[in-house]
Amino acid sequence: MQFIDRARIICKAGDGGHGKSAFRREKFVPKGGPSGGDGGRGGNVVFRVDANMNTLLDFRYHRKFTAENGENGDIKNQYGKNAPDCIVKVPPGTIVKDQATGKQLADLTEVGEEAIVLKGGRGGRGNVKFANAANRAPTFAEFGEPGEAKDLILELKLLADVGLVGYPSVGKSSLISSCSAARPEIADYHFTTLTPVLGVVQTDYEKSFVMADIPGLIEGAADGVGLGHDFLRHVERTRLILHIVDASGLEGRDPVEDYHKINKELARYSEKIAKRTQILVANKIDLPSAEENLPRLKELAQREGVDFFAISAATRAGVQELIDHVGAWLEAYVPEPEAEEENVAVYDQNAEDDEKVTISRNDAGDFIVSGKAIEKLVAMTNFNNDEAVRRFQYIWRLKGLDEKLRARGIKEGMTVHIGDMAFDYQD
Question: Is the predicted pLDDT of residue 339 greater than 80, yes or no?
């Protein structure tokens, strides 16, 4: 299966059903009152973690998700049916972001976990809801509220206990192949591994941990050089990092310098990753040239305060000792309480001031009135009904929009835009 860890999708929550304008038509009731029912709520767009998914490949072929609209209200106070939610299944470790703002909307890690990312519109009220002492027979009803629509970015961060990092061709793929059932491509050229590879490592008959082989990093990875920019995020969820270096220096690189350069890139990408516990693993000790570098690497590990293991993934020398140590470390691991993520905002109805109104002007000199509540009012008003228009004008004056527009210099006949509607201003 092809591994895809980033996708762009288009989502639209359902619109609310329209309210009904109707009156009782019953025998022996010559002046029946209003009886129009409310419309049903539109479906939400809900993201749910599916245990059977491990990649975002499906979103390459299915990129548009639309929830159903609520049913319209009907006569005799009949309410429209609420629409079902649109369920979008994602693999564990998926982050949902708003493409326009970059804001993180949901972080889904546990199987079965759900998040309402886009909320469906509420149903419009029928004319029975507008009856009062002053107007006992209203002829208007509300349109349904439009559902939210957004372009979203999905990012997958692998959920692994241990992450392997290091320069290309230091033996990361050989190590994961030697201690798990994973079979990544192994060859004597750089960037053999083009996608992360997960392997389950057995420590004994009852215990295991997940190891992730991350594509090789190079200097400048945090800036997008090589493959690092695309895959560094997969290290973020790991609990332990195995920093693999080539002890033989076969390609003319100094393993000590490699260690410092990779850590520099990790720190530049994320301070959180930089603080993660590391184990320095010197690979390829079966090669004669490794002997002169091993003392320097041991000294480096002591200086950095990290555990050190010398192994040969090819001959499996020292591999079991490393696995046993990692298994024991993970068993004793106690996760630290993490600080609340910035910009994480799973749908919060009260996150912003609905009543806030802003007025701006476009290049044509027209006035743009923006605000969640006023735009919703425009979308739900039937401007073909005189009573509905009068209600809109009343709310308009109540919000003081005339005074605000005059303060901005509006004149008779100028155009005012609110949402998708355009009005000629009359003082």
Answer: no
